[in-house]
Automatic annotation (TrEMBL):
InterPro entries xrefs: GUCD1 (IPR018616)
Organism this protein belongs to: Rubroshorea leprosula
Pfam families: Guanylate_cyc_2
Name of this protein: Guanylyl cyclase
Domain of life: Eukaryota
Length: 267
């Protein structure tokens, strides 16, 4: 339910000019040629039909999002419990979700603004208990990401890029957000234990972005913690929740076309 960690060997991910770059040279798929040309360039609105799947516990929202992705590309034989067994941990980070998608040959690109742990996160209650225990495991996953064929790009993704990707109809995305900032917009609709309390500290949570309405400037999402089958949030709300301190702006962009072609099942 949180971002990722690194690192000893951080220099592996830095070019000679000192700028952080992608772990892989490019995404495993070609982004639409219309990307970045403006939110109205393709269609005024577009929504991918993705069945809503609710999380079972406070920690498995990311697994529910992965299961929604698998369902969207035609893999229907798995449950959240099955994915939990494949992950073998209840401390789910974005890099865990990346490896899980890779097991099913899903074509995706992992965007983040940080390779490794931001030491300032240690002050956040959400991170305090998990961070010390997860350091070694997450570090190893990042070290082996390239070898595993996982594309990681170190850069911020803006609202316009996301809306353009959604309007193209070619992509859906798993985003790490601050649950508190997200739930302020429909408080009372969230039913998972722990999300109704009044504290305002960061709480990591995963949602699936699957559409955009340019006229209303709203994204359609699937929130595993919501009782609603589909939810709409303003682009401003999503931007605030995605770029909250603690998220590293983690985004897993999934190519529906490529994933449908090459999907496979873990051995």
């Amino acid at each position: 339910m949180i971002p990722k960690i690194e690192e000893e060997g951080r220099e592996k991910f830095i070019e000679s000019n000192g700028d952080q770059i992608s772990v892989a040279e490019c995404c495993p798929f070609q982004l639409s040629s219309n990307d970045g040309t403006g939110c109205n360039a393709v269609l005024p609105s577009h929504f991918v039909e993705v069945p809503h799947i609710k999380q079972l516990f406070s920690w498995d929202c990311g697994l529910a999002c992965v299961l929604m992705v698998l369902t969207a590309i035609g893999i229907n034989d798995y449950s959240i419990q099955d994915l939990a067994e494949l992950c073998a941990t209840t401390s789910i980070w974005t890099v865990d979700l990346a490896y899980l998608l890779q097991k099913f040959s899903v074509s995706f690109c992992y965007f983040t603004v940080t390779f490794g742990a931001n030491p300032n996160y240690s002050i956040e209650t959400f991170y305090k208990e998990q961070l010390p225990n997860d350091l070694g495991r997450i570090d190893m996953l990042f070290q082996k990401a390239v070898e595993a064929g996982i594309s990681i790009k170190c850069r911020s993704i803006g609202r316009k890029e996301i809306c353009q990707w959604m309007l193209s109809g070619k992509y859906i995305a798993i985003a790490l957000v601050d649950q508190h900032k997200l739930s302020r917009f429909w408080l009372g609709d969230v039913t998972v234990l722990g999300f109704h309390d009044s504290h305002t500290e960061y709480t990591g949570h995963y949602i699936l972005i699957c559409g955009y309405d340019a006229g209303k400037d709203e994204f359609e999402i699937r929130d595993p913690a919501s009782s609603g089958k589909r939810d709409r949030i303003s682009s401003k709300c999503l931007e605030e929740a995605r770029k909250s301190f603690g998220t590293d702006e983690d985004l897993l962009l999934i190519s529906l076309e490529e994933s449908t072609k090459q999907k496979s099942y873990p051995v």
